[in-house]
Design a protein that fits this description.
23% helix, alpha+beta, globular, eight-stranded mixed β-sheet, 24% strand
Length: 222
C-alpha cells in the first residue's frame, strides 16, 4: 500500500484514543494486504462495530481509523440530532452498510485508479435503522417535500463539513451513499452514490446535490 497511507504511531494512537473517548466499539485486526495488488490494503485497520454507543453497524466494517473518526463525528453532530426531528423522534440505533474495504479499481473509467474502498477510506451506507423498528433507506428523493427527504438532504449537506466531496444518490432504486475520507492531497474524498450507478458510467451533476472543496486526482474515488 502507498507509504502516504501508513499512519505514524502517534497519529494512529491519537485517532484510536479519540474513538475510545467517543464511545466507539472497535477492534484492531492485523494489517490488510492483497497479494494480487500491492497498492491495496490498510496498514492499521480497525473493525468498527459501533461508531457511537447504541449505533450498531451490522456485521462491523473494516476501515482506516480516520474514516471511522469522521463517521463518528458526523453521526454524533448531525445525523443523530436530525433523526430527533423526525415524527416520533425515533432514536437512531443502527446503520445498514454496503461495501466497505474492497480491493478493486474505480468504476466508470479505464480501471487504472484504485477505488477508495481499496484503501480503507470508504464506507457505504444503505439505510438507517431506528429503535421503533422503522428504517430510512438511502434512495433518490427529489422534490417530494416530506420529512424523509428533508432528513436525507440534511445528512448530505452536513457531510460536506466532514468529507470533501458529496454526491447525492442517483435517480435509480436502492442507491446507498458512500462516506469517504482521505487526507491525501492527490485524492478525492466524500460521500458518493453507489458503484452500481457508476458501473453504467454515470456521473451525477451538481444539481443532484454535491459539494467539492478538496483537491482531486484523475478519475473518481468510488
Amino acid at each position: 500500500m502507498p507509504d502516504s497511507l501508513r499512519e505514524s504511531d502517534f497519529a494512529d494512537a491519537a485517532c484510536r484514543l479519540e474513538l475510545t473517548r467517543l464511545g466507539a466499539d472497535f477492534s484492531t485486526p492485523p494489517p490488510l494486504a492483497d497479494p494480487a495488488h500491492r497498492d491495496c490494503g490498510i496498514a492499521r485497520p480497525i473493525l468498527l462495530r459501533q461508531p457511537l454507543p447504541g449505533i450498531e453497524i451490522a456485521g462491523g466494517a473494516l476501515m482506516r481509523c480516520d474514516t471511522a473518526r469522521h463517521l463518528a463525528h458526523w453521526l454524533r453532530d448531525f445525523v443523530r440530532p436530525a433523526a430527533a426531528m423526525l415524527p416520533g423522534q425515533p432514536r437512531l440505533v443502527g446503520i445498514e452498510p454496503g461495501t466497505t474495504y474492497d480491493c478493486r479499481p474505480t468504476l466508470g473509467n479505464d480501471g487504472s485508479d484504485l477505488s477508495e474502498h481499496a484503501l480503507g477510506n470508504a464506507f457505504d451506507i444503505a439505510a438507517f435503522r431506528f429503535q421503533d423498528g422503522s428504517r430510512i433507506e438511502i434512495a433518490p428523493r427529489r422534490d417530494s417535500g416530506d420529512l424523509t427527504e428533508a432528513f436525507q438532504r440534511a445528512l448530505r449537506g452536513a457531510a460536506c463539513l466532514h468529507f470533501t466531496t458529496v454526491l447525492a444518490p442517483a435517480p435509480m432504486p436502492r442507491m446507498p451513499i458512500t462516506c469517504i475520507w482521505t487526507s491525501r492531497r492527490d485524492a478525492m474524498a466524500g460521500v458518493f452514490a453507489s458503484d452500481r450507478a457508476f458501473a453504467a458510467g454515470a456521473l451525477f451533476p451538481a444539481r443532484g446535490g454535491w459539494c467539492s472543496h478538496g483537491a482531486t486526482r484523475k478519475g473518481t474515488s468510488r
